[in-house]
Amino acid sequence: MWEKGFPAELKFYWLHFDWQKQPEQHGLHQALLHLPQHTRVGDPACIIALFRQFLSEQENIHRSVALACILLLILQQLAAPALHEDVVDSPGVDLAWKANQLIRTQYHLALSTSTLAKTRHCNADYLGRVYRRVFCLTLTEALHRQRVLMAEKLLIGDKLPLTEVARQCGFNNVGYFRQIFRKHTGLTPASWKRRYCREHINS
Length: 203
Fold this sequence. Notes:
The protein is about 55% helix and about 0% strand. About 15% of the residues are buried. It has helices at about 45-60, 65-80, 90-105, 115-120, 125-135, 140-155, 160-170, 175-185, 190-195. Helix 3 (about 90-105) packs across helix 5 (about 125-135). The chain contains nine helices and no strands. Among the domains are: about 40-80; about 90-105 and about 110-135; about 140-195, Homeodomain-like (Arc Repressor Mutant, subunit A, Orthogonal Bundle). By secondary structure, the protein is mainly α.
């Protein structure tokens, strides 16, 4: 019997750790984070970046407190309530989600606040306000984050020249692409590729 497999772009990450219950005499209360058994995170790009940082730090010979800090940040992201597309309490929220869908699927095109507003037949300032209220980001910031996320995937998976990576992610200028990439990742595209190009395998 044929069974439908996982989507080709789906990736799995595993972290193995021990949870030690602190003695009551330390004056520590129970964990403040409530972790659901399964959830939809509000910022997948942030989770992916934290996982990569954890795996990179794990390879260091001298272990540091950084691993525990990164793990705590991951758990915090998982515990944070995520926005859901089906929660529509005003016309503005629905408009923001539709703009977000365009950013996620058409990031490689010449998108801007004005072009997004034009496709949704609304005022650019109004769209910017409702989007920021829903996603806590400006439209430009969201577009840059999506483009950088896709650039990260291309830098890892394909041996493309930097100009082609930039072009496929919606950047016409390589210098501007480097500037935005470094702003969002803290690394140049070349440095990022050297750090994360090798596959991390959990066994």
